[in-house]
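Checklist before submission:
- one chain only
- standard amino acids only
- sequence pasted in full

Submission:
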Amino acid sequence: MEAAAASRSPRPSRLIIELDPPKGTNLQTFLDAALAIRGRVNGIRVTDNEHAIMRMAPLAPCLALRDKGIEPAMVINGRDRNRLSFQADLLCAAALGVKDIVIKQGHDAREGDQPLARTSGDLDLDTMLACVARLNGGKDLSGEDLDGATDFTIGVYLELSDDVNRNRQLADYLLKLKDFGVQSVTLSPTYDLNIIELFLPAAEQTGIRLYPSLLLLKSVTMIRYLNNLAGVPSIPQEFQKKMMQAADKKSAGLQVAADFLRELQPLGEAVVLVSLGWKDRLPEFLNLIER
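Returned file contents:
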């Protein structure tokens, strides 16, 4: 990995923020959080029942952002849809002017706030990508002509797991994504640079933009919980030690993320910041990184 690290070249300091829609009908708090960081970040991404926590669907928040002059990216997952509703929701988004999407399989519903929810099991990532490629080409998944094609900019969210990290031929897989018209790949959060570096040669070969993501660490308990999740890359001990030694754990979590952001930036075209309920502290974090 030393060779990969040595070959890193400086890149523009681009930062994309993920915001969760409200759990209810009130959009004002969501909009206040977005407006508080407008002009300080390069993009805002609206999540879709992230971590299987039921929230408002992302389309309405995206439209509310567009009304404020902010062009959002909309996450859309396959966990909560079959291929009919997936295509229907995409047509609706396109008709209303949302053009930037990020396709995600979605976390297991059993991990969320409504663990009895059932998933259709109809959509894997390849099927979702085939749907979007067809819609952009003026047809639906069954090959029927559309009365008006979509024009989506396509991003894909990849969970970092043992399967991705060890077994997949990454260059071949990213080439497959490129064939579907994928322009960017967002990697799920990790504090292990070695994992991200695995993707660099494949991203360079395919021309797909690579977006590492950064999770704000709220507590030592949170780190221990994440480190106990099967298949999820562990957070290195050094970060847990920094949090344990700090008197103010939450402020320490922001500082740890700010320091690590400097390491992440050379590895991708942009870094995606996962606020995970800390949208009220985003201005403080942006101050910390001098944005």
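Reviewer check: Strands lie at 15-19, 43-46, 73-77, 100-104, 153-158, 182-187, 209-211, 213-215, 271-274.
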